[in-house]
Amino acid sequence: GPNLVRNFQENPGSTVGVVCDSDPARLAVAQKRYPHLTVTREADELLRDPSVDLVAVVAPVSTHFALTQAALEAGKHVLVAKPLATSLEQAERLVALAEKQRRILAVDHTFVYTPAVRKIREIIASGELGEVYYYDSTRVNLGLIQNDVNVVWDLAAHDISILEFLFAEKPVSVAARAVSHVGSHETIAYLFVQFAGTLVAHMHVNWLAPQKVRMIFVGGSRKMIVYDDNEPSEKVKVYDRGVLLDSAADRHATLVQYRTGDMLAPQIPTTEALRIECQHLLECIQQGTTPLTGGAHALNVVRLLEAAQRSIRQG
Q1: pTM above the 0.90 mark?
Q2: How confident is the model at residue 33 (pLDDT cuts 50, 70, 90)?
């Protein structure tokens, strides 16, 4: 919430007028930092304000549907924290309502706007990796344990959004396993996603890890990528490494050869992802275009999350 307030306020194309929060202490912090703000504890007061064009919903996932629906019905454009809703049925209703109201609905899938993920997409699209074999991610830390969703809806939503952005192929199946160790929601999970071709994706998410790890591997027939989001400078590294199978070799000889070449760390801009996202959304509102993380993107993310939850439930 505070980071969105900061980025929209610093953007020359927008001004933050109202901040709503149920916690008076948080409102006091916002008003001290930005004295011009109107603050309120009632969402309805914000929605009735005719000067408000865009509403950012940054609240528990269980409240996304009701708050986003109310904002759209009030004629506002909406940016909502990820994921869009707690079910595909709810998400579809919100997307349909936004279309009916002719308002833009975007979801804060921040990683789509990170320069690092955009660079990875550029590398994949160039064909530099060759045939892409797999996407393998580890997204773990100690907390923050959510009260209304499990670790899949909280952390795996990031990787599913990245998958949706990086690859044109669509998932055909997901198998997921998860366990709850603390509280009523699953705290650790593993997802395996199969695509129509040979591409597969594996995701490990965990709220109970001793260290924060944000690692993604993308493997191809020619080159491979390592993306470490915790790395301060060289977040993306491209390795000229792979495996060659010599089918013409003698059957008693070693058929597999390993190729080890150079590593390249491309220059990645340090621009804050939220700054890019806010600028992109403002341009979409002004031009009437669809955001990168608009309705279609958001629906595909929730569709896969719901399928993973069904897999967990069915064992």
Answers
A1: yes
A2: very high
